[in-house]
Amino acid sequence: MTRSLTGETIGVLGLARSGRAAARLALARGARVYASDAGDSPELQAAAEEIRSLGGEADVGRHDLDRLAGCDRIVLSPGIPPTASILREPALRGKPIIPELELAAEQIDAPLIVVTGTNGKTTTTALIHHLLLESGFRAEAGGNIGRALSEVALLDPAPEVVAVEASSFQLGLSTALVPAVGVVTNLAPDHLDRYVRVEDYYADKARLFANASTASRWVLNGEDPTVRELAGDATGARFYFRVDSPLPDEERGGWVDAEGWLTLRLDGEPERILPVERLTLLGRHNVANALAAALAVRLVGGSPEAISRALASFPGLEHRLEPVAEVDGVLWINDSKATNIASTRVALRSMSRPTVLLLGGRHKGESYRALLPELRAGTVRRVIAYGEAARLIEQDLASEVPVERVEGDFEAVVQLARERASSGDAVLLSPACSSYDMFRDYEERGQRFRELVRGGAR
User: Which runs of consecutive H residues, i.e. helices, occur in 135-181?
Assistant: First the structure.
């Protein structure tokens, strides 16, 4: 059941997409709202004006501490860390602070399939949404996938099931999130520019299990020991997915059988879903994502037949091993979503052509030497390093693979790749870094890559 906000005063910190949506939701549900952002831009000014037009109060370029202290709860946008200076003010000590995801979840009266993990979250969430629609559900997707969950909470008619992508930033402060089905794709170090220790990052992910009950169902990577450890002794039924090993008789879940079929076993006989060769997605990691999605949708009532049709028709996602064009025999691939080392390792394992690898952006704390096992496999014949992380990339990798460092802009990066690639090669943008040194986000980076490839570097 949804929680009434009538008579409550809600503070919202951050006026980007999630914060703006949270303010709209709180106002629509009868709360008084004060929203603020320390930044100042035309987009933030427009968000503040919208909130005022709906009856709330909003500040840009400042936070009003007295107004925040008078709020019953403070909703935090995912881009604002819990260590932000405003949250350390004595006047806010003891004030309930919740993520936007939690405010939205309490306003959605439908089962939530919540997906987290280090890599594959977006693809798995999109797959789940696609499978739900094919299964006949009135379904929506939101969270970290592109639409704030607060926007989903305002939809009319309301969805019957919601697929939610949840980042560690969105889960970290959560205390009341109750997934009907929780999915963990995999775990690897990430966001070490925000977390002091990788254990802190994993602890935020573990908030997924905070309200586990006998009704909970968990879909977990059975071949990732860290995922199994993350779940601890959480109550609920567990379903494991495996790609490189069969499912043990004592476990329920999904695997690839000896004849290459995606196969599920819930409570009875195995159910064959689809031959792996009929998946439209590249890479073994996407086989794992497909199994996780199939299990999640099967657990909320999707039929094997509908799941099979949907997996065979899924078109894939932008910026995730996305073939952009083949020009003069060179295949250009956009994997801009690979913002950490683990994602780039996955991409490299999917490559079959000689590869020119574009690495760079804003450093996130991991050593690039973690890429060496894939680089030593021989597919990558050259690395082009760019952005703020370029010098670190060169230091870490130049002894093992040819590295060229670009001091110029992104156009110069693509132009150099064009000059270095030969017919039969692939140029892979899989940066292993965030995009914030040059771009607003990974999507803008990937879109610019597409434009330069298709139009020629200028």
Answer: 149-153, 168-171
